[in-house]
Design brief:
The chain is an alpha+beta fold. Helices cover 33% and strands 14% of the residues. The protein has five helices and four strands.
Length: 161
């Protein structure tokens, strides 16, 4: 039968997605990777943030220390909290307590990489949304974009009106 290899639903493709530490860390990795290039990444970063905080609260992830940020915003130097979760590590913005409680690990080692994940964004979002209880508010449908109109060039001295 042709086409049997193509699965439409993430639930068919990933029936084993239980909220285990490994599945959740893969989902966070996938969401974080997509958020970096998404046109509106706010919800994806919120999912990552809430999922990591819940994992830390449950003792399934640990804050390892502080790293200097690779991309400081308005300052010369900025630190991020390094969070270890399963085989993955992530960065979160630090709280005031983190500076006094966590050791500073210095500069981020650019050779340390997270393992690859083949989890789709939809499957990752579904897993994290069910785990955190967050709901994605559907944005209003995009208004129809105005079609491009070629500029009209008049001869020198002619009026545009």
């Amino acid at each position: 039968m042709k086409g049997d290899w193509k699965l439409n639903s993430d639930t068919k493709q990933y029936p084993h997605l239980q909220p285990t530490v490994e599945n959740l860390s893969q989902a966070i990795f996938t969401v974080n990777r997509h958020a970096k290039t998404a046109p509106s990444p706010k919800f994806l970063y919120k999912l990552k943030h809430d999922a990591l905080h819940k994992l830390i609260k449950e003792g399934k992830a640990q804050k390892a220390g502080l790293h200097y940020s690779g991309n400081p915003k308005n300052s010369q130097q900025q630190s991020d909290v390094l969070v270890k979760c399963g085989n993955y590590s992530f960065h979160l913005p630090p709280s005031k307590e983190d500076f006094s409680e966590l050791p500073h690990l210095g500069k981020l080692d650019s050779f340390v990489r997270n393992p690859k994940s083949s989890l789709s964004l939809n499957a990752a979002k579904k897993l994290l949304m069910s785990y955190t209880g967050l709901k994605e508010l559907n944005s209003p449908p995009n208004e129809k974009k105005q079609r491009y109109q070629k500029p009209v060039f008049k001869k020198l001295g002619e009026s545009y009106f």
